[in-house]
């Protein structure tokens, strides 16, 4: 890439990406925190339908970054594609700002958001890698801060947008409340783009080779046509649950088949690492089934069966809106991540750091304890409502599991997969994560509350039945992970002895 004159510090370049990423996550999580409730309360969706529509959208949101990264590398340039994605996302949230309850309009808006996320997400992360290329010490610190941007943006928006919806709804109209809250997500992207405009010089020398050349007209037209096809296909899939289910499960079968083919056709020295990566990927898929409960079953549980007051020693500290409980996930991750990093570093200095497979086992144990916490809360529920503190500790344990399991996902790919397969395997990992999020919505429907049930005592029994079962599934996943530790140790040793060139260091900026 060209050398800036005068030179720009890495910190200034990083700050530009950091800020637009923070505002992008502000918009995305501000939308996500309301979406299932919006479909149920405003559009009249049954719990089952709302969960599945959002599950399909989540799957597509995870799948499209593989396409966006390819476009950034080969056609538009990393920097241009990131900026294009931010603009598309701004329009997607702006569509939700329009006060209409037309369900087809919702599917169209979600299709635009799916496209925008696919263009933005991989290229923002790639820019951070390019800023610190060759500086492995500073890149770890950079991604730690970058990760903080994700959680700062998401925490603020998940607390703010439900409050805006209620405030505007109470003072003007319910419909205006919902759409104004979605509009704030679009405003977040506008602020991010304005900030980028004033700081754009700091990234002028960062990007892929395509960023150094004027855009080729046929490439631009191709991306526009392809983008319109993705929007139309996404909208069609979201409104046809049978098609969504078929696509998701077909993707799962294809990914598994490709994994098996790569293992069978790989060099003998590569095989142990690929098998280890497959085992850990399957475990990660199970984790995302738990993860999807946050925006589906746990969200609706907070609507119906949680005391919204935070009381301590008989005094009311404050009161939350049901959707705001989802912000506990980001808050806990911010608290727990530096603690775990310190523990890992301390153990590593003494040569006692435990392997990734053991961290996965501990993570599943924490997730299981988190879901049992909600069931425990039901034993002291008053009129069908559990104390809000059970949600705090349940989310805390669940978030600990997330940091231990999902936060290590891409690091695991980098460790065990040969460099020549790295790009494909990362794409496959993201698609597999999307498949499992849809499966998580299917699982959430086991606690879907029929329209004829309005008694909190009845809905409490339905929800806690699912959460307790998920707790036992978490224990089963823990037992399986522990049982596979000897195999994983052997595979890791064989992989290390084979001296396979690894994928360059990979960071999961979302988790």
Automatic annotation (TrEMBL):
<feature type="transmembrane region" description="Helical">
    <location>
        <begin position="81"/>
        <end position="98"/>
    </location>
</feature>
<keyword id="KW-1133">Transmembrane helix</keyword>
<keyword id="KW-0812">Transmembrane</keyword>
<feature type="transmembrane region" description="Helical">
    <location>
        <begin position="176"/>
        <end position="198"/>
    </location>
</feature>
<keyword id="KW-0472">Membrane</keyword>
<feature type="transmembrane region" description="Helical">
    <location>
        <begin position="272"/>
        <end position="291"/>
    </location>
</feature>
<keyword id="KW-0571">Peptide transport</keyword>
<feature type="transmembrane region" description="Helical">
    <location>
        <begin position="461"/>
        <end position="485"/>
    </location>
</feature>
<keyword id="KW-0813">Transport</keyword>
<keyword id="KW-1003">Cell membrane</keyword>
<keyword id="KW-0653">Protein transport</keyword>
<feature type="transmembrane region" description="Helical">
    <location>
        <begin position="141"/>
        <end position="164"/>
    </location>
</feature>
<feature type="transmembrane region" description="Helical">
    <location>
        <begin position="243"/>
        <end position="263"/>
    </location>
</feature>
<feature type="transmembrane region" description="Helical">
    <location>
        <begin position="429"/>
        <end position="449"/>
    </location>
</feature>
<dbReference type="InterPro" id="IPR036259">
    <property type="entry name" value="MFS_trans_sf"/>
</dbReference>
<feature type="transmembrane region" description="Helical">
    <location>
        <begin position="22"/>
        <end position="40"/>
    </location>
</feature>
<dbReference type="Pfam" id="PF00854">
    <property type="entry name" value="PTR2"/>
</dbReference>
<feature type="transmembrane region" description="Helical">
    <location>
        <begin position="356"/>
        <end position="376"/>
    </location>
</feature>
<protein>
    <submittedName>
        <fullName>POT family proton-dependent oligopeptide transporter</fullName>
    </submittedName>
</protein>
<feature type="transmembrane region" description="Helical">
    <location>
        <begin position="325"/>
        <end position="344"/>
    </location>
</feature>
<feature type="transmembrane region" description="Helical">
    <location>
        <begin position="52"/>
        <end position="72"/>
    </location>
</feature>
<dbReference type="InterPro" id="IPR050171">
    <property type="entry name" value="MFS_Transporters"/>
</dbReference>
<dbReference type="InterPro" id="IPR005279">
    <property type="entry name" value="Dipep/tripep_permease"/>
</dbReference>
<dbReference type="InterPro" id="IPR000109">
    <property type="entry name" value="POT_fam"/>
</dbReference>
<feature type="transmembrane region" description="Helical">
    <location>
        <begin position="104"/>
        <end position="120"/>
    </location>
</feature>
<feature type="transmembrane region" description="Helical">
    <location>
        <begin position="219"/>
        <end position="237"/>
    </location>
</feature>
<feature type="transmembrane region" description="Helical">
    <location>
        <begin position="396"/>
        <end position="417"/>
    </location>
</feature>
């Amino acid at each position: 890439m060209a050398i800036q004159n005068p030179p720009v510090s890495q910190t200034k370049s990083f700050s530009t990406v950091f800020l637009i990423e923070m505002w992008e996550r502000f918009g995305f999580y501000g939308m996500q925190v309301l979406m299932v409730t919006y479909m149920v309360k405003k559009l009249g969706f049954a719990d089952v339908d709302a969960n599945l529509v959002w599950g399909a959208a989540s799957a597509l949101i995870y799948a499209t970054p593989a396409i966006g990264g390819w476009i950034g590398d080969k056609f538009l340039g990393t920097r241009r594609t990131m900026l294009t994605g931010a603009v598309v996302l701004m329009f997607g949230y702006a569509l939700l700002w329009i006060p209409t309850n037309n369900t087809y309009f919702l599917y169209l808006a979600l299709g635009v958001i799916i496209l925008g996320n696919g263009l933005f997400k991989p290229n923002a992360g790639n820019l951070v890698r390019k800023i610190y290329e060759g500086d492995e010490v500073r890149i770890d610190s950079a991604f730690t801060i970058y990760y903080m941007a994700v959680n700062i943006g998401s925490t603020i928006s998940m607390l703010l947008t439900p409050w805006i919806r209620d405030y505007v709804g109470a003072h003007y109209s319910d419909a205006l409340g919902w759409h104004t809250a979605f509009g704030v997500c679009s405003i977040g992207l506008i602020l991010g783009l304005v900030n980028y405009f004033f700081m754009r010089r700091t990234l002028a020398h960062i990007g892929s080779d395509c960023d150094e050349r004027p855009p080729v007209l046929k490439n631009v037209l191709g991306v526009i046509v392809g983008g319109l096809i993705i929007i139309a296909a996404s909208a069609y899939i979201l409104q046809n649950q049978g098609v969504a289910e078929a696509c998701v499960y077909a993707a799962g079968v294809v990914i598994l088949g490709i994994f098996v083919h790569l293992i069978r056709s790989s060099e003998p020295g590569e095989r142990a690492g690929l098998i280890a990566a497959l085992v850990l990927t399957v475990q990660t898929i199970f984790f995302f089934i738990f993860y999807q409960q946050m925006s589906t079953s746990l969200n609706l549980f907070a609507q119906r069966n949680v005391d919204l007051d935070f009381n301590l020693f008989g005094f009311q500290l404050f009161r939350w809106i049901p959707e705001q409980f989802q912000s506990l996930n980001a808050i806990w991750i911010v608290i727990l991540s530096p603690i775990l990093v310190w523990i890992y570093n301390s153990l590593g200095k003494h040569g006692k750091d435990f392997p990734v497979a053991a961290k996965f086992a501990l993570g599943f144990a924490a997730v299981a304890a988190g879901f049992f916490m909600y069931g425990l809360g039901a034993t002291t529920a008053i009129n069908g409502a559990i104390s809000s503190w059970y949600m705090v500790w349940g989310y805390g344990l669940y978030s600990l599991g997330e940091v231990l399991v999902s936060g290590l996902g891409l690091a695991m790919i980098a460790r065990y997969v040969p460099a020549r397969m790295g790009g494909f395997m990362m794409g496959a990992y993201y698609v597999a994560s999307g498949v499992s999020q849809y499966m998580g919505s299917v699982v959430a429907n086991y606690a879907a509350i029929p329209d004829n049930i309005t008694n909190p005592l009845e809905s409490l029994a339905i929800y806690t039945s699912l959460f307790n079962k998920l707790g036992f599934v978490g224990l089963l996943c823990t037992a399986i992970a522990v049982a596979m530790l000897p195999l994983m140790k052997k595979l890791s040793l064989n992989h290390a002895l084979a001296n396979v060139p690894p994928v360059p260091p990979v960071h999961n900026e979302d988790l």
